[in-house]
Design a protein that fits this description.
alpha/beta; Glutaredoxin; 6-stranded mixed sheet; 32% helix; 19% strand
Length: 182
């Protein structure tokens, strides 16, 4: 009896906590990518316009990141790394984008500044509503969701709660990108 009460107390005490291993956000490995959506593009060919990044990517190898905040230094480093990887894999038509799921009014100038400071050449930054693209299932508990796909089928997914994305995690993301590009 006391073990059941203790277990119940632990579950209740941890009720609002989401563990990284339990956090599922976005389409998972083996899933088809849900389809078109039209976020406001901040940089790239369609800067200042709503454009379908899913459509732009087509069947090419793609890394799609869905993020809730732009202030995370580890995320900014990942974006810069992703830009270099995408540029390196230009012959394979690799495509990459980061969609910020937020209703923050001052986000657009902040993202323009990030794109300029990082001198992004390939990665497109965009803004979508706080819920994220319909049908993509971006968890409200996920601060960063990385969906790596090819031929519109997910090959890897990495999801992180607020403040949980680390340098070591970015290495795992980069490793999964390298696997996709083989």
């Amino acid at each position: 009896m006391s073990r059941k009460l203790l277990a119940t107390a632990v579950v209740v005490a941890l009720g609002g906590v989401v563990f990284a291993a339990d956090l599922k956000s976005g389409p998972q490995s083996g899933d088809r990518v849900p389809g078109p959506f039209h976020p406001l593009n901040i940089n790239g060919e369609y800067a200042g316009k709503k454009n379908c990044l899913y459509c732009q990517a087509g069947d090419d190898p793609t890394v799609a990141i869905f993020a809730r905040t732009a202030d995370d230094a580890v995320l900014q480093k990942l974006i810069s790394t992703l830009d270099a990887i995408t540029e390196k894999n230009a012959k394979a038509d690799m495509y990459s984008f980061v969609v910020f799921c937020s209703d923050e009014q001052k986000l657009e100038p902040k993202l323009k500044d990030i794109a300029e400071k990082a001198k992004l050449k390939k990665v497109v930054l965009a803004i979508e509503s706080a819920e994220g693209p319909e049908k993509y299932g971006i968890s409200k508990d996920a601060d960063v969701t990385v969906v790596i796909y090819k031929d519109r089928t997910v090959v890897a997914n990495h999801s992180f709660a607020k403040g949980k994305l680390t340098e070591k995690d970015t290495e795992k993301v980069v490793a999964d990108i390298a696997k996709m590009m083989k």
